[in-house]
Every structure is written in structure tokens, then in C-alpha cells.
Amino acid sequence: MPWWIKTFTWLFMLMAAVVPIGVVMGLMGLSFTMSLYGFETTNPISPTGIALTLLILFKGVTAYGLWTEKDWAVRLGIIDAIIGLVACGVAMFVLPLVDRSEGFVLNFRLEPILLILYLLKLQKIKPTWEAL
Length: 132
Description:
The chain is mainly α. The chain has four helices and two strands. It has helices at 3-27, 47-67, 73-98, 111-131; strands spanning 34-36, 39-41. Keywords: Membrane, Transmembrane, Transmembrane helix.
């Protein structure tokens, strides 16, 4: 696994460990800032907050699987990358059409570049990973 995937693996495992704290804070009426792929909220109990919580937990499970070299990790990682690319696409191209509070603002995000590299790397190592 390349160093940059290992780095993100640890980052997403840490994020997944912290998210339950945010959910508890949200249940107590406190704010907790969450952001991923261009989606952002300060209320973990809102629809956006629940979606972000699920995405982060999914990324955490995937990261744990990659870190511990589980059989299912690469398949889950490929699904994770595709979900991330779709989410980024929605954040970049659909949200500006729906949320007109600041006028039409098209944001280009850097996440799709890393997600494409991640997806390509996982597809490349998938046969070797599954053969082990």
C-alpha cells in the first residue's frame, strides 16, 4: 500500500472513532462540525449530519479493513471510492443548482483527484490482494 493511502487510512479510522462523540453531542443539543466531500453541517442529527456520519463510518470500516489486510477490504475500498466520486460530483455540480443562497457558485474540489488515484490503485492491487 502506498504511503498516502496508509496516511488516509489512519485519518479515516480516527474520524470514524470521533464521529460517535459528535452524534452524542448532537443528541444533547450541542453543535459538532462535520465536513466531507463538500458537504458540511454543525448538526449531526440533521439529514446531512446522518449522511456524513454514515459516510465517515463506512470510510472508517474500509480503512480498518485495508490496515488489517482483510479479504474484503479492497472490494469495499472500490465501493468507497465510487461513493466518494458520486458524492463529490453532487457537491460540485448539483448543490450549486439547489442552494442559491450565494448565487450560482461552481466549486472544484481536489478530492476527486485523490479518489480516482485511490480507485485506480485498488483496482490494480485487487487481483494480488484476493490471491493471498
